[in-house]
């Protein structure tokens, strides 16, 4: 279940939502993939605007810290019975995003962005495969590359397994876009508390994984 297309779809919706949320409500920061923030960091360094550069350095550092935390949790809990380490990560995401929803929009955006970037890092590091194929739930570049590559192989060989693989990747991208649409819609209406929808989706994902890890 943890590598199922259904769980990947839920995570992709959450990923798209968080990118729209952080950009629209939390100071035009991309919380998921850090490429945009790294580019903006370089631009402001070139302008010698070090305060603005530091603003974008914070989520980059938070993302790196999230990756390290996942590796530490996996090392400590991977072979323990009871709650699976991936479930621990999901419920940690729920807690952190719940806190973000309580942070006022404005002067506290930096803290919110740190937490969102941290959540995105632990999610993308924890859930890395769909049916054995590498994927990302918080960014689309790799999925687009893999999906298009698979579609090309299908076009050349007519092997339907390549087509199925391509459609899975494109489906994840569509769900990511859907998450961004929902994030944009709810952010304009519910404000900072709209992120609680992500908490609900992650709780559902954690419950669905429970049966697998009990077996």
UniProtKB/TrEMBL annotation:
Q: Which InterPro entries match?
A: DUF1275 (IPR010699)
Q: Where are the transmembrane segments?
A: 53-73, 85-104, 110-127, 166-186, 192-209
Keyword Membrane set for record:
yes
Keywords of this entry: Membrane, Transmembrane, Transmembrane helix
Q: Which PANTHER family match?
A: SLR0142 PROTEIN, UPF0700 TRANSMEMBRANE PROTEIN YOAK
- The name this protein goes by in its record: DUF1275 domain-containing protein
Originating organism: Candidatus Anaerostipes excrementavium
